[in-house]
Fold each of these.
Amino acid sequence: MVFLCLNLSFLVLCLMKFLATYIFLIASLGFLTTCGSEEYKGEVIAQVGETALFEDDIRGLSWNAGDSARVVGKYIEEWVAQEALLQAAEKDENINAAEIDHKVEDFRSDLYIHQLLKHRVETALDTVVAENEIQAYYEEHKADFQLNDYLVKVLYLKVPLDAPEVDKVAATYKLQRESDQETVETFAKMYASNFYYDVDNWIYFDDILKEIPLHDINKDRFILKRSKIRFEENGFYYFLNIIDYKLKNSISPLNFERNNIKTRILNMRMKDLREKIENEIIQSAYDNGEVQLP
């Protein structure tokens, strides 16, 4: 009995050692297989020469449920075409690979410099433009602000034919009384499909024509007479009141050009700041002894 127990203990110990060794070998083999192979990217869905397109490569595509096949098919077709052309170019002895590598390196350098200057300019740029600076720029550059079309101040409404109390708008859209503006605005909030009125700002008359279907008008006469009209078309009433205008070929008013001028001033600041930063970086390289010349 003692002998039998000793043999059983010995067998169990051997079995445990065998299992431990087996598990270690399997784990080691799995580790080596993972390290020695590329990350699994799904099934190959297209291949040109030795280059493959995998499922993972198209997972980022965006499509609707109904056109997934079309989107994927087009992507694969374009990928195959580009890869075929690229491989043909790489094999062509007439292609100067060194020249291409040189251009790629130049482009890489330009990208680095662009990102550096872009970040530093954005960090240091003063984006506050004072009103007196805007006015001074306007006075000095009036020739740049000549109008090519009429500017107008207008009131217009687009109202469905079945809207109630349309006669109220017909009686007030000409703004002949102080109370008319409030009446029109109240009606517009409730019933108008489209409404515009801003007595402080100018807009191009051609922008109005995009909203109101005016046909066969003499634009010059229509604006100069400060026309006020009402008509119906395609299920809507239209009301238009030309309140004021600026002649084309005259100088555009400051309040119309304010944002444009601010953008111009900021662009000039960015250009000057960029040049200043470039010069400071280059000068620093000289001062620190980083530049070696023969």
Amino acid sequence: MKVVAIIPVSPFEPIEIILDSVKHLKSLDWDNFDYELLYVVDKRHNNDSRVEILKRENIRVLERNTTRGKRGGAINDALNVLGKVDYIAIFDVDSRPEKDFIVKCVEALQKHKNAYIASSRRYISNPVNLVSETIETEYYFINFLLKKSAFKQFNGLIGVLRAELLIKYRLNEDVITEDADFATRMHFMGYKAILVENTKIFEQAPIKWKDLYNQRKRWYYGGLQLWRYWKYVRKSNFKFAISWFSALTLTYVILVIAPFLILAPPLLLYKFRKIKKLVVVVGLFIHTLILQFAAITALINFIKKRGVEWDQIERVT
């Protein structure tokens, strides 16, 4: 079987993170697959040194002199040069899957013929300050919902996808959140996403409140664009429709969960077994306010057709 991992690289990404990505992905268990890593680099300028450095690592590079379609455009361009392939793994440069991630996801797809993607729960690899520790806690809640929801949407489509479906339906380059757009289309067409329980993937969280706000404002704006599919969703599987509708309504009034933050201290102690983690209660309160403000701003921008910018997020190198 042929498996290709596509890793989009924005103009913002530092070479240190990219090289660490190469090292980590090469170290995965690829079993007996014929595999290839394909880094799609949106170049900063014509002589972007990151391209040459990757080539010296014997990595296949697709160079783009444009940011057309952002991440979705980069992945679509990669699809044009793949040739015959059975499975496509998609990672970001900060994705750090466990060693058996590829094997476990491929096994899941082979067992579920109507699945378009297999992936795992996400965890934070850089809990270095209050911002990232707060998001680390948020991810535990998201992982709980991911198991329960009939609309399993893996952020960034990070995971392993059935190549024929991704190549056939491709990503929508006219939306902000191409991952949620593709997941919605797959679900209402009857395909499903598989949560693989026995592996994990780690990624970096924003380490600044400003970066968190900009990231979530973009996500909220992308969610508003998904309502174009409502007429299809409401005719599809009932459980999926309810989960999808809840995701696109309840998350926009996130402030309603504020009273439940009173339960955070005992839950934090139970989960982390560390007194110092109680400071995350403060972070959760700030986090809730930021998300609510991001939702309101995204809604205003959407109504006024202003769009949102794709801003750089600071990495921990």
Amino acid sequence: MIEPLDLESINALADDRDGPVALYLRQLLIPVEGEGTPFFPPTFAGSPQNRGDLGYNIDVLADGTKVALVDSVGSQANRMEPVFLQAKEGEAENLRSALVPQVEIAYGEGKAVSILEAGHRLGDAIIRSSELKERSRAAFEAFLDQGDAGPLAKLAPTSLVFGVWDSRDTQAKLPRVVQATIRAEDVDVLTRSAQYVPPLDYADLEVFSETDKEKQQGDPKSPLSKRGFVHVPAVKSHGGIVARGPIRRDVTVNLIALRRLDGENGQALRRYVLGLALVAATAPMDGFLRAGCLLTPVPEEKVVWLLVRRDGERVAVDLNEALALDYARGAATAFGVGEGCRVAFDKKRAVADTKAKTKEQ
């Protein structure tokens, strides 16, 4: 049985300190090519201590099952946050954009980047490289010194929804209210090989000698190979994975983290952030994660949100995109959406910031 949700019961999720701990969704996905077809998870570069390509992130469980990370928590957050972006000229109006201040940093000739596209949100270097630096620092310090998240919510509310760490300045850290990840279970790893054949014999045309051709072809690191003048093999490179088990997207709205937010008008603040969190969590997923990885929900699987109570009981609830947007509009009006702005990138500030030290240092 699925319990209905209304605006009053959603308010209680933000207000009741002893209420449920989370809303949770498990969504099954499938490659557009069909079940059992290969798709490509992300590859990860090595750290300074372990240079090179680490390949896919695949964990082996105690029973030998291989579980692949298809999209990380950070990556999912960066995909979800732009649902609040203002529509560009010629695009259909985005009703979600009115829920948050539209803050942009202009650079170059007629170019601008939105804070909603900055990976570290209010803690991003691009914020410190503009006149927003002082305002963002004041907002972080209000949270650190008084526990007041209101200034953050007025300037960059999605930093409260998806989490932010001002690691390069004040060290203020706020946990995610919404988090999501995609994993594939029971996977087999594939490889692929290819051979590049140049359209011309450049040695025959005396672009270089036959000797140089013989020395360098077949070596992908050789200068002629890098420039595409000789035969280059690519053997046993990453070929994607096949999932024998489910491909699963897990979405959690952390109601405990939400209810810890406070400020001058704490109740309205928490309801506002909850509204944004629900809009982000229920928005349709863009399943094009990267080349070779286009996923869609399994059509016959019904999407069911679970309300998780403190004793672990899970209750199916009727949470949907329309209800979330309706609630968020009312909560945004009651709290008062901060004013958007467009500021200029400041090269001098950026140069100074490259030489600055954090409080931790």
